[in-house]
Amino acid sequence: MSKAMICSCEDVTVDDIRHAVSRGFCDVESVKRYTGFGTGICQGKSCTAAVAALLEKEKALKPAAVVPFTPRPPLYPTELRMMASVPVDESQPPVGGLPQEVDAFPAALRPEGPVPAKAKVVIIGGGIMGLALAYNLARAGETDVVVLERGYLCAGASGRNGGGVRMQWGTPSLVELAKRSIELMKGFARDLGINVWLRQGGYIFLAKTKPVAQRLERNVSLHNRFGVPTRLITPDEARDIVPGLTMKDCLIASYNPEDGVIFPWPFLWGYAQGCQKRGVRVETYTDVTGFETSGGQVRKVKTTRGDIACDTVVLAAGAWSPQVAKLADVKLPNEPHRHEILSTEPLKPFLGPLVSVLDSGLYFSQSMRGEIVGGMGDAKEPAGLNMGSTLRFVSRFAQALMEQLPEVGHVKVLRQWAGCYDVTPDNNPILGRTPGLDNLLQMSGFVGHGFMMAPAVAERMAKWMATGESDELFTRFNLRRYSDAAGHSRDFGTGTLEREDMVIG
Amino acid sequence: MRRLPDVPPRGRAITVDLEGESLPAIEGEPVACSLVAAGEPMLARSIKYHRPRGPYCFAGACSHCLMRVDGVPNVYACRTPARDGMKLERQNAYPSAKVDIFESIDWFFPKGMDHHEMFAGVPVAEQVMAKVARQLAGLGLLPKTPAPVTAPARTVRTRVAVVGGGAAGLAAARVLTERDVGFLLIERDDALGGRLANGTPEAGGPSLDDIHRISPSSVLTRATALGLYDDEAGRFLAVGTWEADAPRLVKVYSERFLLTPGGHPPTLPFENNDLPGVYAGRAASLLLRRYDVAPETAALVGWGAELYALANLLQERGTKVVAVVDLRDTPPAGAHATAVRGSEPKAHGLRGVSAFSYTREGGGREKVSCDAALVSVPVSPSFELARQGGAKVPFDEKRGLFVVETDADGRTHAPDVYAAGDVTGGGTAKDAAAAGRRAAQALVGGLS
Predict the structure, then answer these.
(1) Closest residue of A to B399, CA-based?
(2) Which residue is closest to A199 within chain B, CA to CA?
(3) Under an 8 A CB cutoff, do A48 and B346 touch?
(4) Which of B186, B228, B267, B367 should one mutate to test binding to chain A, selecting the residue with the greatest count of A CBs within 10 A?
């Protein structure tokens, strides 16, 4: 069959690029994500310029807006065993990170014309939280909504996560939200017309120390109470589920077959398209520069494309939330923490569940495309917005992964990147009204796991906003929990809630 | 492709094993070169449509030649030296690459595929698709045994790290040698020279003599710069090397990084541009100059000086050049006799190129029989390291390429990163050498 290939690694044709443009994906980063060009073995070496030239020639982009997608290390596929050969000093914090891409969007990508002068609801942050909320508001009849996003859709943590979705949490609220989210994910393609490739291969948590083992034991009864079929499994059972898994030093494991993995990007596109069909404006490459407040209310949101007068503002900017809140003189206790992740060459299916060593935060799964996708938290990671990549991470990850799955030594890393967790003192989210600024609603602090909570949280929040009916979610997780009795919120305590300790990655 | 007759072999004659069949090869040459010379241009099936694929770029910059080599999946056959008895398997095909039933997928999707919208929300079909897609996804099988452990990474400190030993890098290395500034030249190939050794000859171009002025202790060959990183000790390159035939990672800390990696052979989108037998122009000159392998009959397409130089080089060495199609300009005076300006190129053939067609300017459609279609266009700058280091990479509309932005002396937006040669936009080897010299001189001035 005659075809003109533009990216032969991923079999992307010239017509596929044109199709993406017709769907509204015009900048190089978005076209890459929608078509998959440049995500294969060569990482865009042979095709990026050809795609860029086509976008420029066919007027999808102004010349100044044609920028390459971020080239990620390693530049050539590199075996995990080679990465594992770099010694790591765990007693020291990670330093640096390249390439830096926190403020990398050229002004030429900004859409022409101003944002609407007024709107009922302005949502700051076009990640999954903001878009899911806007979609649910629109479904409830509220379409006078503007979503502001500083980059392309998927530029933040929603586009950078590993796609794991699980019900295995340590506190009741999160178990319940995650369970509902996964239910909604099953129907996502039917509701929004885009595939999200939910594959329920389960999650296996391994425990190597006693306190962690006790945590897993305790979780089982909590999960079962909510109808989540988590069970403890023996090392032999774990090996039946994942052939080749070594269970060295492993005390116990828990398994929920209904957890799984999804492909994150289509969620954002699906919600955004669902919003736009109903008249909601989704404004990409638009930065919030300040707020106009008076009488304990936000009156206007100021942006790089004009001001928007509004009734309600929702702050759903993830790791950027404290920075944006500061513009309204609101101090949030959230701190951004970089978390790194990588993806390997695609292999034929061999790994069903997502496996995580809860003690170290190592996790790995096999994506729908066949890549091993995984990460591992670094306890020494300092706070700060940093999306650079380090060799230290790949080395630590490769060492830890090869310990669990020795057969992967020859498997090659294709690319590594980083995103930021939005970390709160008690690992619980911040939701609801802001003390002192009544119409500023918080929707942040999901500690790197907001993606799997968003469909359910947005459903509850839209209902709460549209009907005014009380919902304990927005009092339980209110910012007030960190204040002292006198209401002073300057010195944040750890809050009044039970700490969520099932955080990985 | 065939080995040129009446040329003495460049190495020991050996055999490699392609799915049980024993094929002749020359020890040490890229095994993809051995296979095409032995009449096996199809090395793989593509990831989605199971289209036949053969080596294209011979530079590790595409994915057409990935094979399972001695049990390890997705190995670049174009960069793997042939060894006696080496076991090669084609991937992603059932029951075999020659008769692959999944080839039918290619016919179901004549224009392309939007897997986001396909069967989205259609009951049953959606679930079936997800199951089928998972089984079809992926390239290659997980190795069956653990890999041997790699020796611990080692660390090197130098004043200047030069990435790429082509025209620009060699000229820079010569300046650094003369000025007695410590440097390390990192070259991905097994020999220095880049296009001076592997490309088309250039009248008045720089000679390869500079190689002999460089101390071997300042050179790492078969060394791939994997990324520019930083840590508590500063900025460094992670370099994948081979030491005593085993892989080894080297961290190269340096005060300055002079990036002269050249460019990647780009894709030129046209009908069947991925058919086995379509090669990058620089791949064709490499195969001819280094390994004495060339097409019998070739059609050339592209633009720029290298297109015409390649036609002459092939013709001189006995290849019958049946078409030279310039997609941008009118052929210059003295160009190959078949040279025309044309458009809409297309490769023809079932498992490999058997013919090539194009529309002649002011005329009709022309079709010629050939065993190779060679794509010679200016290389696409390898801007990745420079961009990681903080250099600016604007789009050059006229050339349709991303280029690393530098001043006349190779300074980029990042104070410790310099760039010269093809990576800044391409030109002649002579231009690249001059730029390499200027950049080396400029950065030496800034070293304390």
Answers:
(1) A53
(2) B130
(3) no
(4) B267
| pLDDT at A489 exceeding the cut of 60 | no
Q: In the numeric block, which tokens belong to residue A161? A: 């996560």
pLDDT at residue B426, rounded to an integer: 79
- The residue in chain A having the minimum alpha-carbon distance to the alpha carbon of residue B54 is A8
The pLDDT tens digits of the residues spanning A381-402 come to 999 999 999 999 999 999 999 9
Q: Which of B56, B142, B395 sits opposite A52 (nearest CB)?
A: B395
Minimum Cα–Cα distance from B53: chain A residue: A8
- The angle that helices B281-291 and B305-316 make with each other, rounded to 10 degrees, is 30
Q: How far apart are the first and last CA of chain B?
A: 53
Q: What is the CATH number of domain B154-264+380-446?
A: 3.50.50.60
Q: What is the dihedral of CA A460, A462, A467, A468, to 10 degrees?
A: 80
Q: Where are the beta strands (DSSP E) in A31-102?
A: 78-79
Supply the pLDDT for residue A491: 56
Sign of CA dihedral B170, B175, B177, B181: negative
Question: For residue A56, which residues of chain B lie inside 8 Å, CB to CB?
Answer: 395, 397, 400
Q: Helices A450-467 and A172-186: crossing angle, nearest 10°?
A: 90
Q: Delineate the domains of chain A, giving CATH numbers in brackets.
A: 5-69 (1.10.10.1100), 117-197+262-330+429-505 (3.50.50.60)
Residue B313 — pLDDT band, cuts 50, 70, 90?
very high
CA distance A266 to A230: 28
Six token digits for residue A315 = 């702050």
Sign of the Cα torsion A4, B48, B54, B399 reads positive
CATH architecture of B2-136: Roll (3.10)
Residue in A with minimal Cα distance to B230: A96
Write the ipTM.
0.96
Taking only the tens place, the pLDDT of each residue in B122-153 is 989 988 999 999 999 999 999 998 999 999 99
Look at A6 and B64 and tell me if their CB atoms are within 8 Å.
no
Q: Where along chain B do the CATH 3.50.50.60 domains lie?
A: 154-264+380-446, 278-376
Name every chain A residue with its beta carbon within 8 A of the beta carbon of B144: 407
**Chains A, B: CB pairs < 8 Å:** 295
User: Closest to B137 (Cβ–Cβ): which among A78, A269, A370?
Assistant: A370
- Across the interface, of A54, A189, A349, the residue whose CB is closest to B126 is A189
CATH 3.10.20.440 in chain B is located at 2-136
Q: Which two tokens stand for residue A230?
A: 């988590």
pLDDT score, position A130: 98
Q: List for chain A the helix, strand, coil content (%; round to 5).
A: 30, 25, 45
Residues 6 or more apart in contact with residue A22 via CB below 8 angstroms: none
The H-or-E segment that residue A51 falls in is helix A48-57
pLDDT at residue B210 tops 90: no
Give dist(CA A284, CA A277) in Å, integer. 16
> Residue B230 and residue A8: Cβ atoms within 8 Å?
no
CB contact under 8 A, B267 and A47: yes
pLDDT value, residue A485: 58
Average pLDDT over residues A352-366: 97
Kindly state the average pLDDT of the residues A332-359.
97
Asked if residue B369 lies in contact with residue B354, where contact means CB atoms within 8 angstroms, the answer is yes
Options 3.40.109.40, 1.20.1270.360, 1.20.1250.20, 3.50.50.60; CATH of B278-376: 3.50.50.60
